[in-house]
Design goal:
By secondary structure, the protein is α+β, with helices and mostly antiparallel strands. The protein is built from three helices and five strands, in the order H-H-E-E-E-E-E-H. A hairpin with a 3-residue loop joins strand 1 and strand 2. The chain is elongated and about 55 Å long.
Amino acid sequence: MSVTKKELIELVAKKANLTNKAAKEAIKVLLNGIRDALKREEKVVLTGFGTFSLRSRKTRKGRNPKTGETITIPARRAPGFTPGKSLKKFVR
């Protein structure tokens, strides 16, 4: 089971004693801040939770599953998340 964005907004609203509209805006600002920092190639460190960062993937060989043809997959950047010690310990 997963938590949807709507459910997360409702949880934040309830726990922080906010309206759903205010909680939605707070989550929107948080997520946009993380996105914008990653776009500027900066790390986002949330102590006790984890670190969001960009990871570089090298060019590599792949295979088209339909035709079996060998293809080159270009290098790219991808967002990554590394959980912090507290989060790892909590979910164990």
